[in-house]
Specification:
The chain is an alpha/beta fold. It folds into two domains: about 200 residues, Type I PLP-dependent aspartate aminotransferase-like (Major domain) (Aspartate Aminotransferase, domain 2, 3-Layer(aba) Sandwich), CATH 3.40.640.10; about 140 residues, Aspartate Aminotransferase, domain 1, CATH 3.90.1150.10. Helix content is about 35%, strand content about 15%. The protein has a seven-stranded mixed β-sheet with strand order 1-7-6-5-4-2-3, with helices on both faces. The chain has a five-stranded mixed β-sheet with strand order 8-9-12-11-10, covered by helices on one side. Helix 7 links the parallel strand 4 and strand 5. Helix 3 packs parallel to helix 9, helix 4 runs parallel beside helix 5 and helix 12 crosses helix 14. The N and C termini lie far apart (about 55 Å). Bound molecules: pyridoxal-5'-phosphate. Pyridoxal-5'-phosphate (PLP) binds next to helix 4 and helix 5.
């Protein structure tokens, strides 16, 4: 794009930012730089690039790190990261081969044996396993809270461990899966500040997979790092596994540093596919949210439906509605609902739908339907499932970009089969 002072919206940047066609034969789309290593013009140039890569000297005016090796940098990865950072107004961004690679790298960078880690429950199943089995296996202590807890209660939970001086990171996922329960990011930031000192600023990490990056900007509410499973809305076509971390420069330098040595950065091909996806990210998410609102509203008064959990249908005057209005820019495309009955009725309904694929994952162009109690959340103990309202009659629908009247027709005919 030619230089201008006009401040563009993120979606406008998604086709151009960070890429000059005239460095690549005029190709309108970035080629795939399918190469492991990059040639230096001379030995001296190679030396200069490595000095910057290893921090052996400061960059001269405007000097950028040259291309060295695709585990450190690659044009596809760099263009993608520049574009993704825009959505969260982040200083920098790092893309990984999966959401779990992004999340585990962040947690391993900020937590050491003996440290305390505070997180909001529930989190994604893989994240929960990593926290409760892998981190604790390395000697990290963990304490959790839920969307129902107040700030004072959470501070109390931390202080009861007696390890508050070793609290090194806070992590929340909001809205929660599959019930859409929301955690107040600003309140969580106040907790991070409460436990911060002059020397140590406690980092707040937010998993923004469900609403972001279009309908929720955690950094505007105090988050220091934002993580995504880019497999979901960012990728948006059920054809890539990828993950993203965006955030503040000093923390991102640490995340990228560990990524270099774990070697879990996204490949040129994954990066290229994600650049394709970013061009339609906003229009996809807006359409999915529009469709989801129509479907949720329709299901609300259906005689065979017990309850609908959708962010576009929260009751006025509730704490959840107040958080939503302050924190979110739209309700998104995830609708969860309870059919009347139990597993038998839920399965009959799911199997009777025609348009959605029966599959886990979410955020894709096609609608996906699944049964959390026996699929995504199968391993959660029964008592905890009850507490989290993940009952046998709960169905989760990830709404796609299909025609909403067709989807409503499909829900209606499948409900008739129960
Ligand atoms: C899917 C998901 C993850 C894990 O991402 P992968 O790309 O599958 O590794 C993490 N957090 C949330 C909220 C998810 O939905």
């Amino acid at each position: 794009m030619k230089k201008t002072n006009h401040k563009m919206h993120p979606e406008t940047h998604m086709t151009s930012l960070g890429y000059d066609p005239f460095l690549s034969e005029g190709s309108v789309k970035s080629p795939i730089f399918q190469t492991s290593t990059f040639a230096f013009k001379s030995a001296a140039e190679g030396k200069a690039f490595f000095e910057l890569a290893y921090g052996l000297r400061d960059a001269k005016n405007g000097e950028q790190m040259g291309l060295i090796y695709s585990r450190l940098n690659n044009p596809n990865l760099q263009i993608l990261e520049e574009r993704l950072a825009v959505w969260d107004s982040a200083d920098d961004c790092a893309v990984f081969e999966s959401g779990m690679a992004a999340i585990s790298t962040v947690l391993l960078e900020f937590l050491k044996p003996g440290d305390l880690f505070l997180f909001g429950n529930p989190v994604y199943g893989g994240t929960s396993y990593f926290i409760n089995h892998i981190l604790t296996g390395f000697g990290v202590h963990v304490v959790s809270f839920t969307a129902d807890h107040t700030k004072e209660e959470i501070i109390d939970l931390v202080e009861k461990t007696g390890l508050q001086n070793r609290l090194k990171a806070i992590y929340v996922e909001t809205p929660g899966n599959p019930t859409n329960a929301m955690i107040d990011i600003e309140m969580t930031k106040e907790i991070a500040e409460y436990f911060s000192t002059e020397e140590f600023k406690l980092p707040l990490v937010v998993d923004n997979t469900f609403l972001g990056p279009v309908f929720q900007h955690p950094m505007d509410h105090g988050a220091d790092l934002v993580v995504y499973s880019a497999t979901k809305y960012i990728g948006g076509h059920s054809d890539i596994i990828a993950g993203v971390v965006s955030g503040k420069a000093d923390l991102m330098a640490r995340v990228k540093g560990l990524r270099t040595f774990l070697g879990n950065m996204a490949s040129p091909w994954t990066s290229w596919l994600l650049m394709r996806s970013l061009e339609t990210l906003k229009i996809r998410m807006e359409k999915q949210s529009f469709n989801a609102q129509k479907i949720a509203q329709h299901l609300l008064n259906h005689p065979k439906i017990e309850k609908v959990s959708y962010l576009g249908l929260l009751d006025e005057g509730t704490r959840q509605k107040e958080i939503f209005d302050r924190q979110c820019l739209g309700p998104g495309g995830m609708v969860s609902f309870y059919v009347k009955g139990g597993e038998k009725e839920a399965f009959k309904f799911i199997d009777s739908t025609i348009i959605p694929k029966v599959a886990v994952s979410l955020g894709s162009t096609e609608s996906l339907i699944q049964h959390p109690a026996t699929m995504t959340h199968a391993e959660i103990p029964l008592e905890e499932k009850k507490y989290l309202n993940i009952t046998a009659n709960l169905v989760r629908l990830s709404v796609g970009v299909e025609n909403y009247e067709d989807l409503i027709w499909d829900m209606e005919q499948a409900l008739d089969k129960i």
